[in-house]
Amino acid sequence: QVHLVESGGGLVQAGGSLRLSCTASGRTFTDYNMGWFRQTPGKEREFVAAIGWYGAMKYYTDSVKGRFTISRDNTKSTVYLQMNSLKPEDTAIYYCAADRTWETGWNSLGYAFWGQGTQVTVSS
Asked: What per-residue confidence (pLDDT) applies to 29?
């Protein structure tokens, strides 16, 4: 099993920045591809960004390209999401996810393990 805990959410004005963190425990961190997803009330959870085992492969949804950066520090078993130039439409609960193989796809909801989420609110 893998336990994921997100942190770093908060309230920020439009144009500001936040850095989300997700720390994993329970298994070898480098065995897992990692992803960030987000969800707002009444909407489906959507893909934001993903990163491969050693950080070489990175993927982003179009709406965050150029603004968000996903990275990982395997010595700390942590994946990060640096969010710059935040917009009100980025407001959501952000979830961290882990999967060994990406068999269901790096942008799908089929990740094996999920955190409980951290709230990001961007004021206009």
From this structure: 84
Q: What DSSP string runs through 18-30?
A: EEEEEEEESS-GG
The mean per-residue pLDDT over the stretch 72-87 comes to 96
Interatomic CA distance for residues 11 and 34, integer angstroms: 24
CA distances from 34 to 30, 51, 70, 112, 123 (A): 10, 5, 9, 10, 28
Both tokens of 114, joined, read 């999920």
Mention every residue, 6+ apart, whose C-beta is less than 8 A from residue 105: none
Contact 78, 96 (CB under 8 A): no
Residue with tokens 């949804």: 61
Six token digits for residue 89: 């439409």
- Is the confidence at residue 31, as pLDDT, over 90? no
Token pair in block for residue 67 = 């603004």
- Given a cut of 80, whether residue 91 has pLDDT beyond it is yes
The residues, any chain, with a CB within 8 Å of residue 42's CB and separated by 6 or more, are none
Ramachandran assignment for 8, one of left (phi > 0), alpha (psi -120 to 50 degrees), beta (any other):
left
